[in-house]
Write a structure and sequence with these properties.
The protein contains 11 helices and 13 strands. By secondary structure, the chain is α/β, with parallel strands linked by helices. The protein has 2 domains: about 190 residues, Rossmann fold, CATH 3.40.50; about 30 residues, no CATH class.
Length: about 300
């Protein structure tokens, strides 16, 4: 156990979403983006969220960032209830509690400013003194591998370099949590991989908890835990552990687990449902310590 954390901190997840619902209203239409989503993320974890387009990934990330509020449910980050924050506390949370990286490379940065000026912007908004801003921007740009581009206009940089500046900008006020919404969506796969490498270095260097949304399963595989969202709910989770302790090799073991939510609901993978012929009613029984599901007519 990490000795720096108290026993209570180690029990409570860093991010806790319980039974989140989000209904987007557009004119007379209501779109349910999240329907009873549960998610827990540990402090210092780097994890990915995957899911098809429209499954609610961005909605979830906007709620975690304090940009949007859920229609129902509970969200706490570092023990703070996001729904109980005053407007002032929310501004502060968005400014230094989180860093956010958008998919659209152009949305992250101000195109007519240099890399350094972009990284300094969040610190300017937080009224950090000039010298500290200068130093921090240089340190961060060096860290993301762009020390030699510090005074370049960001519109002169490649897409991958721009996302690096965006990550440095997201880290400017040293937030404990970095949220990234499909940050590699507009990049080729090699550059995308480098961005994931960078997330891991950020985590190792600054201890930042990182949640990355992606639809690219290949890049998602680079993190320890991948949670899949389907229809506005978390459905399955893949965990990987290096098995070198057991086998003196660095093979990985992969566990795919279905998520049991706080109301006891479970999404059973479609292939299994089809294979076993389960339809809308099932018998649930206990046999020893196993839960058995049978079709209604068995
Ligand atoms: P993802 O990021 O997984 O593609 P989103 O969270 O963006 O999914 O969207 C989930 C659902 O909510 C979609 O059906 C989308 O059309 C809808 N939606 C998202 N944002 C809004 C909004 N601001 N207004 C109306 N509907 C929205
Ligand atoms: Mg999205």
């Amino acid at each position: 156990m990490d000795q720096r954390r108290g026993p209570k901190a180690s029990l409570e997840p860093y991010i806790k979403c319980e039974d989140l619902f989000k209904i987007h209203k557009v004119a007379d239409l209501e779109v349910v983006a999240l329907r009873g989503l549960d998610l827990r993320v540990d402090r210092g974890e780097v994890m990915a969220i995957v899911g098809p387009s429209g499954s609610g990934k961005s909605t979830l990330l906007h709620i975690l960032a304090g940009y949007d509020a859920p229609s129902a449910g509970a969200v706490t980050v570092a023990g703070r209830n996001l729904l109980k924050m005053s407007p002032g506390e929310l501004v502060d949370y968005r400014r230094s509690g989180i860093g956010f990286v958008w998919q659209q490379v152009s949305r992250n940065l101000i195109p007519y400013l240099t890399a350094r000026q972009n990284v300094e912007m969040p610190m300017l908004l937080a009224a950090r003194p000039r010298k500290a801003r200068h130093q921090r921007a240089a340190e961060l740009l060096e860290f993301v591998g762009l020390g030699h581009r510090i005074d370049y206009g960001v519109d002169k940089l490649s897409g991958g370099e721009q996302q690096r500046v965006a990550i440095a900008t997201g880290l400017a006020n040293n937030p404990p949590l970095l949220l990234a919404d499909e940050p590699t969506g507009e990049l080729d796969s090699r550059t995308g991989q480098e961005i994931f490498d960078l997330f891991r270095s950020v985590n190792a260097e600054y201890g930042t908890t990182i949640v990355v949304v992606t639809h690219d399963m290949n890049v998602a595989r680079q993190v320890q835990r991948v949670v899949a969202i389907a229809d506005g709910k978390t459905s399955t989770e893949i965990r990987r552990r290096r098995a070198f302790e057991e086998r003196a090799s660095d093979e990985e073991t992969i566990h795919e687990l279905a998520i049991l939510d706080s109301s006891g609901r479970l999404q059973i993978p479609r292939e299994i449902l089809e294979k076993v012929g389960l339809s809308d009613r099932v018998q649930v029984s206990l046999e020893g310590d196993r839960v058995i599901l049978r079709s209604e007519h068995e």
